[in-house]
Specification:
By secondary structure, the protein is α/β, with parallel strands linked by helices. It has 22 helices and 14 strands. Strands 2-3-6-1-7 form a 5-stranded parallel sheet, sandwiched between helices. Helix 4 packs across helix 7. It is globular, with a radius of gyration of 27 Å. The termini are far apart. Pfam families: nSTAND1. This is Novel STAND NTPase 1 domain-containing protein.
Length: 452
Amino acid sequence: MVVTGASGAGKSSLLRAGLWPALAQGKLSEQARQWPRGVLDRPTSAPLERLATLLAGLAGLEVTSVLRQLADHPEQCHLLVRQAVEADAVRRGLSGREAAASRLLLVIDQFEEVFTGVDSSAAVSSEGQAAALIAALHAAATRPCGPEQIPAALVVLAVRGDYIDRCAGFRLLAPALAQPFIVGPMNEPELRLAITGPAAEAGLELEAGLADDILAELRQGPGEPLAGTLPLLSQAMLTIWEHREGIRLTRRGYGRTGGVRQAVAASADAAYRELDEDAKAAARRLFHQLTTVTSDGIPARRAVPRAVLGIGGDDGSLAPEDPGPGLVGHVSGVARVLEVFTKRRLLVVDRETVQIARDACWWAGLSCEPGWRVIWRVTPDTASCSRMLTTGGAMAGRRAICTGASGWPAFGNWCPAGRPTRTVTLIWRAFPPSSWAPRSPRRLGPRACAGD
């Protein structure tokens, strides 16, 4: 079975807080209460070794022996799983009939990391390792064996939506991919329940209005789905709990934490620190690509086609021959940025586009970087600039935009050295000529601006 959805949609939460308790309560079947359960979380490298360690622990065998069998004959994994399940049943005192009917529930969380190997401390998994793991899992989930002639395992793969095409390259996954379980973004009532439900279960009280405050900060815009918010909500609730007053979770405690925005900023800072210098340069350029300016002069997220960024459409790999504008020479860095920021739910990548997960992802760590000041300064200065552009300041503003003149503060601090084109583009979008004072001496445009 394949569980898929965007990053941060709640796939892991569904499996750990939904499927696991349901099994323990006998909601899948009464027999399933007794099934052994295992999780391979982030199978970044040596996934067969991870699987061998799990099976060896259940069966009471040496890991090296199990690993050798898996590596040599992954298509016979069902026999190893059956042996492990029955050995575990005997150890727990189950009857022979219960042992024969048992299956292993095996969850592979963040299955996409079989392909990416993003853990910097580990080697990247090869295609051969991925193929061997998939062959082993397929055998365990589909090949009947044992006294009851049933598959030895129920295998659940949780994989990000933008890696479905990569999975489709493996024939053995085709049946599961034909009927995936898709986890969509939670709506506001569901998120409210995610705030109040666990607190009630833990015996905690929420101050009136606290849930409203949290939801207001999570909300992206009118009618916009709340995608990728669960990790942010989880972080926010943890910090609120750390600032609790007895058994009460309070609005005052929420204020002390800095709220969701601070949680995003902390996560973004941590992600940025993981990057080397080439990847940091790619991050600055990538965030520029993913940003636009509204007619009100406010920076906003925008979805950019993967092809524009030089990302292949079929398998998620980068296409060095076609990097996006401004990303030339940073293609490998883009790959690293996408992996690090997507893992932290700061970027959302699907099969067609890439976009910033939340407006709050414009964080202070980038505000002092060359080329980023325009994004960071545009919000507080918008009103001032708008007044000047509509009250006869158009010519002065135009010159300041082009030259980065420090004598006009509203624009002077925006123009990063060596990056005037990007600055002009952003300001031009925010304040088109049609919004300027009618008494401007001549029509202003990019050519006139460049030549002034």
